[in-house]
Amino acid sequence: MTSFSILRLNGELLPRLLSYLMNSPKHQKVLLKIGEAGSTRQALTKAGVESHAICYPCLDNQKKLLHTLDTIKSKVDQLQKNFDTIVKECETLKQ
């Protein structure tokens, strides 16, 4: 079963930057540890999320950082498409 939580931000942190941060390997590792702590089953509680500190820059720097991250993500996505195309072409050539 999958559950979802809604995180309401106070306006100091941009939601897309929070998404990048929460999906980063560093934060995923910490969140998994929080979810495993003191429980017989893995669960990320409201208290666990609230206890997870996130450092972030001022809004202007967040916007610059988001622009950079979005640009990199776009390039990675294009590389993945190119790779998938090459793999398909190789499979075709094999046949």
Features:
95 residues; mainly alpha; 4 helices; flat
Describe, in short, the structure shown.
The chain is mostly helical and 95 residues long. It is built from four helices and no strands.
Structure description:
- The chain is mostly helical and 95 residues long.
- It has 4 helices and no strands.
- The radius of gyration is 19 Å and the shape is flat.
- The model has no long low-confidence stretch (mean pLDDT 87).
Rg, please? Answer: 19 Å
Name the quaternary structure: single chain
Number of strands: 0
The proportion of residues in beta strands is under 5%
Uncertain residue segments:
none
Helix-strand category: mainly alpha
Fraction of residues in helix? 55-70%
Name the helix and strand elements from N-terminus to C-terminus, one letter apiece: HHHH
Count of separate DSSP helical elements:
4
Mean pLDDT: 87
Dominant shape: flat
Distance between the termini: 41 Å
Largest sheet: none
